[in-house]
Amino acid sequence: MFLTDKYSSLLPPHHHHSDAAAAAAPPKSSGSRRRQQKQLVAGSKAACFDAAIATRLRGLLPLPVSSSPLEALARLADLLALTLAEAAPALAGEGDAAAVAAHLDAGVALLDACNAITARLERLRRRRLLARFALHLLASPAAADEGRGRARAALAERGGSAAASPPPPPLPSLPFDQPRGRLSAAARVLVAVNAVSSLAAASAAAVLGGGAPATAFPRVSGVAEFPWAEPFNAVSNQLSALAASNTSEVDAIDAAVQRLASALDGSDEAGLRAAAQDVEKRTEELTARLDRLSDAVNGVFRAALGLRNAELGSFMAAAADKTCI
User: Fold this and answer.
1) What pLDDT does 160 receive?
2) DSSP state letter for 166
3) What are phi and psi of 176, to 5 degrees?
4) Taking a C-beta distance cutoff of 8 angstroms, is the pair 103, 190 a contact?
5) How confident is the model at residue 171 (pLDDT cuts 50, 70, 90)?
6) Which of 74, 146, 294, 297 has the least CB density, counted as fewest CB within 10 Å?
7) Which PANTHER family match (predicted)?
8) What confidence score (pLDDT) does residue 72 get?
């Protein structure tokens, strides 16, 4: 008797059955193993992505009550740009074509929102230039009646208040509709992208809205499912409170320009000088903050384009995989 036969005779009967079943079971296909490996890698990427967002959101807290709304908006735009940039590699190779395809329209809406915010910032820059031109005319040695008349005209063209000039159209909103049920790794990444995009759009509408109705700030449920949900909701709550309680720099300079326009119609020279100094101070502060926010919005636009290209590439790769199966 061979040694192998002796060894087999010592084994219990059920073991022979297990060996036979294992030998008869078909081996897993290489395609199935590749899909499982991809899912594991994608899940790991999504977990790292979630952790990074949670850390950055906590870095925004707490928002000081006296902080500048424009500066807070610029910091949030920076966070959104990073989120978009890191979403692209997190989606690479995941293969959930349905989740990616469903997000393509949201990506276009975000690009449109960036364009609308950029147009709003350019409008604010033009109004700032008209205010500075009025200050230049008042500071001219020949400022007397002609200079005051031209300064008055510049302020009228600028629009000193919402009543003097029609408000701009509302900025586009990006409603956040949180999906339910079991989500793939790609879908989890895109939930975070949509949530932060919605928060940034709501903040922009509140700070730059120009008299728009109260903005609804997004909230995320399922703190256990999304590690970033708790700091996200905290940031959303504090931004909402900041927008409701603080007068933005845009509103403050409008009020200062209105006081200057009223002083031009009076005879109080000391009051006119004080009003002009107030407008000058506020325009200088606004200049730096508008430039900072404009750079941040441009960063969001570039990152959104990059994510859209990655999504299209992922979508086409998933279609190619199906063709090969």
Assistant:
1) 55
2) P
3) -105, 115
4) yes
5) very high
6) 146
7) BPS1-LIKE PROTEIN (PTHR31509)
8) 94
Predicted confidence at residue 213, as pLDDT, reads 62
Report the run of H or E that residue 155 belongs to, with start and end: helix 145-158
3-state secondary structure 252-301: HHHHHHHHHHHHHCCCCHHHHHHHHHHHHHHHHHHHHHHHHHHHHHHHHH
Q: What is the pLDDT of residues 180-233, one digit of tens each?
A: 888 988 899 999 999 999 999 999 999 997 655 678 899 999 878 899 999 999
Pairwise CA distance, residues 240 & 244, whole Å = 6
The pLDDT of residue 25 is: 46
Give the DSSP H/E element, type plus range, for residue 44: helix 30-59
Contact between 238 and 202 (Cβ < 8 Å):
no
Q: Provide DSSP, 45-73.
A: HHHHHHHHHHHHHHHTPSPPTTS-HHHHH
- In 3D space, the residue among 274, 286, 279 whose CA is nearest the CA of residue 134 turns out to be 279
Write the CB contacts of 194 (distance below 8 Å, at least 6 apart in sequence): 103, 106, 174, 176, 177
